[in-house]
Amino acid sequence: MSRFSGKTVIVTGGGSGIGQAAVRRFAGEGANVLAADRDEDGLAETLSGLDTSRVITRIVDVSRQDDVEGMVQAAVDRFGALDVIHNNAGVGCDGTVQTMTLDDYRKVMAINVDGVLYGCRAAYPHLKKSRGCIVNTASISGLGGDSQMLGYNISKGAVANLTRALARDSGKDGVRVNAVAPTLVHTGMTAEMEDDKALMQEFAKLIPMGRGAQPEEIAAVVAFLASDDASFVHGHVLSVDGGLAASTGQPD
Ligand code: NAD
Fold first, then answer.
1. What range(s) does the Ketoreductase domain occupy (predicted)?
2. Where do runs of H (alpha helix) occur along the chain?
């Protein structure tokens, strides 16, 4: 497939997990890609085996507006336009209303929420020109509450509603905006958690498909939402969760 031939895509958090899989997916479908991350080694890993005339990397901290603006400009300078931004970089945040530190709260909001907003804002004029689109990475944790993850829940809820609210205005400019909302995906973010076998068995019970996702399964949906195949999908937060959101949570 070459749905993205001649198109330019930015992926944040492109040095690991879902973002790395998205870079490879978009590049595999013909796109020019700028992979952004704060992790230089991760970006080098992403780049390996890819055509460096079409895939470039950039060290970016998405919680810094100037970094994000520089990232967008770099993609436009190198490839001439911007068609897609996948605002995907994110971090976790553990704790309850009592145990979460406010420093951790501010950090998760700065990366997961401000970072997405900066990406949408900087990319928007270019996407308006190209009639391009935005795909944000939300989470199933933005659609309801989890135990012991309050800051993360708040941040991903904001990403989900930023996606819907932005779509309300951007449709008239021809800029589509959507998000994916994954449940457990086997990436760097979950590596530590996955050592807890009992917890993993609980996940397998809760998810009707009985397993977590591989990053490539999320990247494929991101590519669908970014493609012309989704030309009338707008303002949607798409659960990619093996059926989790469809379940009432009642025991078997
Ligand atoms: P990951 O840790 O493998 O990848 C996240 C990447 O984001 C890393 O390369 C990291 O360096 C980068 N990053 C973090 N902060 C950054 C910053 N300030 N600036 C630039 N880059 C930064 O995790 P992942 O699972 O691939 O996470 C990708 C997205 O998916 C995140 O938004 C995460 O919240 C979301 N998500 C993950 C899961 C899961 O179970 N893994 C589930 C739902 C949603």
1. 7-183
2. 17-28, 40-47, 65-79, 102-108, 115-130, 150-170, 197-206, 215-226
How close is the Cα of 89 to the center of ligand 1, in Å?
Answer: 5
**Is 118 assigned a catalytic role?**
no
The CA-atom distances, in angstroms, between 1 and each of 30, 34, 94 are: 8, 20, 40
pLDDT tens digit string along 170-202? 999 999 999 999 999 999 999 988 999 999 999
Q: Catalytic: which of 105, 118, 124, 152?
A: 152
| CA pair distance 18, 188, nearest whole angstrom | 9
Pairing of strands 8-12, 176-182: unpaired
C-alpha 251 – ligand 1 centre gap (Å): 31
Q: Which of 188, 185, 169, 139 is nearest to 39 (CA)?
A: 188
For ligand 1, the distance from its centroid to the CA atom of residue 88, given in whole angstroms, is 6
Q: What share of the chain is helix, strand, coil (3-state, %, to 5)?
A: 50, 15, 35
Give the ligand 1 atom nearest the CA of 64. 18
ipTM of the complex: 0.99
Please give the single-letter amino acid code of residue 78. R
